Amino acid sequence: MHYEIRLTVDYAFKKVFGEKKMAFMGFVNGVFAAKNKPLIKDVTFLNTEQTRDNMKGKDIRLDVLAELEDGSLVNIEVQTHAHTSFEQRSVYYWSTLYSQSLKTGEGYRSLRKTICINVLDYVFFPDYQDKYHFSFGIKENELNFPLTSHLEIHFLEVPKMRKIDYNEMSLLDKWLFLFKGISQPQMEELAMQQQSLREAVEAIKKLAQDPKTRNEYNAREKFLLDYTTDVKTAQEEGEAKGKAEGKAEGKAEGKAEGKAEGKAEALIKTAIAMKLEKLSVPLIVKLTGLSTEEIEKL
Q1: Would the pTM of this model clear 0.85, i.e. be above it?
Q2: How many whole angstroms separate alpha carbon 265 and alpha carbon 235?
């Protein structure tokens, strides 16, 4: 039996980690412990709102932003599908949060350490099949010492997590196992491993059993599935159109034109997806090569 609620659906993720302090701290401490970083003892949620537009899928981001006891910021979000230029997108979101931590009239010393944790329901680093947790910062290229500790971006790849004996699993292993979507007996067994895991499991049960939240979860899951399908289809159609038109011409010039048209159409579809992701127009211009006027017309 399954509760049929997956934490990789951002609505469920925010209901659990954006409302349950112990679950949030347990997960973050699992991430920190895996990299031998100090554990957190308290947290304050900064974006607890969930508007009705979120439930209808008009806002693609349902992340969790919190302040730690030392003033650092932690932002966590889940992603169900690969994004174009996701590396740049991740740094852009980090930089936005980092710059917003500086209030008017404050000096640069007031900037706060900002940690972004991306939970991915797909493989982002396929060349490293035995590793699912990647952590990035800014370091000197040759001597490998950090310039600052203020930038920290984590990527967690859920599909790479494999079930092993609980006694051999780290706290983060157990959290990623929960993210995979497991049976009720497995979930109950996992809840016995740690108090923060127990709180998360109880929150999942409550979400699944309440008709209102269950309907909202289903609506959000459907939107994400449709969105993922539309983006993938648009990319495939753009590539296919370019190849087909190029082949039909039978000449190098025809092939080049066909591929160019297909690529242009794919770029337009990608730009639309980026606008849905709330990326700024200047950043979309930089990533796609389209003009400001072209993007504003989409």
Answers
A1: no
A2: 9
